[in-house]
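Let's practice the habit of predicting before peeking. Look at the sequence and jot down your guess about where helices and strands might fall. Then scroll down.
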Amino acid sequence: MPELNDVVKNWGDFGRDGNWRANFGGSREGALVGAHESYVSENHDPQWGDREPGYGRISSRRMQERMGRQRYERRMMEAARLIYRGFNGSRRDLLNLTEAMSTSDFPNLFGDVIDRAVLANYLETPYTWNMIAKEADVSDFRPVKRFRVDGGTGLLGPTDSNGFPIPLDQGAQYPEDSLSDALYTYRLFKRGKRMPFFWETIVNDDLNAIKDTPARFGRGARRDEEYFVTKLFANGVSAITQNGASVPALYSNTNKNIVNNANVGDTGGNNPVLSITALQRAMIVLMQQLDTTGQPISIEAMTLVVPPSLKVVAMNILNTDYVWMGDQGGTNGGANTFPLQQLHAQNWAKNIVRLAVNYYLPVVDTTYGHTGWYLFSNPENGRPALEIGKLRGHTSPELFMKLPNSVAISEGAMGPGPGSIPGTTSQNPLEGDFDTDSIHYKVRHVFGGTRIDPIMTCFSNGSGT
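Done guessing? Here is the structure:
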């Protein structure tokens, strides 16, 4: 803290006439004379009136000797407060005073720093629907029909009681085969929203808090797709209704695509918790599926879909290099079995299965959203389990801004004059609507989809029952 002597030197000195003069670089009297005179008249002390012979002012050292240092400091602090309150001189004096004092002299006055900022958006979760659903190009809004035609791909004739092919006798008629079909249908639908702002809001947006409105709409559209596809398969053990039509359940024992003892062919348990052994059992479920003619199908690439709560478990399973197993090739030991043997094998599953973490599973499925997990055949390999359609020429979300229905004119003009047609590309949309000065943003997205083939996926709710 500066000495009071320095304060006196900075703010002014006593003159020969007893008035207070401000030392701001010149000899002109400050505007605080009245304040000092008032102080002297109200707080007269003989020591203040005494003058040293030959001196125009009383030195601070002499004054301290007469008054005592403590009393002197109290008097000078009171004088400083009166000087500050009584300052009503010219603007130049005020500017000089401001230049003489820094912000550190007034910690309470300049201590508050105004620092405003807009928080960044949350990091967007990745979308995974394209890893499990086939994307189709649709021409219009009329019903989309997908036909499944099966038949003609089975064995060339009947078999005997032992399963051996029965030879075709000479002159015998060839057995007749037939085709069967199935229909899957859905419609595209339009989704979107708009967001209006007043012109004043745009002008006052010094932090650019609303300039990313189009980007926000784009994120919303991507999330809409992920939510919709998740609704198609999450805990899909029941039929759903789409566009007034009933769509059968995706997972059932009829479809043989629930991970349980009956569909795996062992006693490992029903709806197992996700583990390396449970994943191997799910792979068995997919690889045991047969087509409509009873023939095996090949599923060599798969996608494991898990909620965020199982991400760590799934990454541990797929990123490990070796697996030590007492089953699935190893032995558990016990009565009437081989001795306990552990099998150390390279984790071949990581070369077949890719991971998709679906953050909407807990949102859509409130029952098994944290424990359920799914295995899908990759949709680009043959027939998909799910299909999502996009409108041709409008496959991505589309963003729009309303064109203002007004045109600016100059003073004294009756119209905009020659040039571009008013209200078209020559106008700035940020000028707003003619009636209300409102500015409108809009997003539009068109898509649809449905369940297709249930044998290309399997499911465990993770409950262990």
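How did you do? The chain has twelve helices and 17 strands.
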